[in-house]
Structures are given as structure tokens and as C-alpha cells.
Amino acid sequence: MAAVTDLERLRRQVAAVSRRAARMGLAPGISGNVSCRVPGQDRVLIKATGLPLARLSAREVLLMDLDGNLLEGSELRPSKERHFHLAVYRRRPDVGAVVHLHPPYALVFAAAHRLPPLHTGAARTFLGGRMALVPPAPSGSRELAEAVGEALGAEGMRAAILAEHGTVTVGADLDEALSVTEYLEDACRTALWLRLLGSG
Q1: Contact call for residues 45 and 17 (beta carbons, < 8 A)
Q2: Can you give the pTM of this predicted structure?
Q3: Model confidence pLDDT, tens digit, residues 139-161
Q4: Which CATH superfamily is domain 6-196 in?
């Protein structure tokens, strides 16, 4: 049996985290995309476009450089949101993974063009006590890429809500980036329930 290469191991991790996000209800249908930096290199692995995270396989994870050039032959195309993933990697050498999802409670705040208050210590800790709100821009556009890159380019910024769209979170690795999404979604859920209780 052939040894699994580091690159193949990373592909499997991207696919596994993608499926996990879908099982958690954070990415319905074909929405959302996940990427990671190849450690020590200016290369990125990212989900192919038009595929559901729930069934993503390692062969549907594509290798590209930081300019967006595919580095291997494939009939698949990289996610149309690759531009904002790459914008973050170019600005933040410390970021090892970018996760873009459509969590249901966070989408309420995205639709309202608002950020949730951080009512819990866990949310304040894992979100760094702050997050960014990115104004509406067409999906896949350079305008959106520039806005996300600017929002998450600030040192220590870990999460952004994209108005009318979804969330983007970053981390040192895939597990951390997904965990930040979980804490962001929890902050949104807590804020909405507190509002219903008249305490928000």
C-alpha cells in the first residue's frame, strides 16, 4: 500500500472538516467552502465549486497558488469564493485555514447587517472580543474579496459576518477555524434567545 503524502493528508482533512460542518447544520446544500494553507508554502487547498460539503471527498479538494492558479490538472474548478480566501492568506501569514459557512443564527445577523453582542466569556475568548461586519458585495466578486481581506487582515481578527451572506472565520489550522465558527454561531444564538427573554 502506498504511503499517504502530506498533501493527500491535508486534502482528507479539508474534506473531513467540510463534512463535519455540514453535519452540524452550518452549510446547507452547496453553500460554504473550506481551505487550508500548505504549511511552509505559498499554496492552498480549497474545495471545488458547486459541490455539497456534506459529501466532499479528498479528490474534490484542489491545489492552487496564492495568485489563484490551479497547480494540477482537474476537470473541477475551485470555489468561486477563492478570491477572498486568498486575500486573507496573502495578508495573514499566521492563518493556516479559512472557513466560510452559512450558519442559521449568524445568518439572522447577516440579514440584519449587524454583529451579535458577545454575552459569554467563551465567545469573547475565542472570537478575540471582536469581529468584523463586511458590507454586501456580489458573491465571488473581487469587491467581496477585497472587503473580506481587509476585514480579516487585521492582526488577531478571527471572524467576520458577511452582510446578507454568511460567515468567514480563520485559524491556525482547520479545526481551530471551524471552532471559531461554532463560537460565533453560539454567540448569535445566545444573543437572539436573550432578546426573546427581554434581556438582550
Answers
A1: no
A2: 0.95
A3: 999 999 999 999 999 999 999 99
A4: Class II aldolase/adducin N-terminal domain (3.40.225.10)
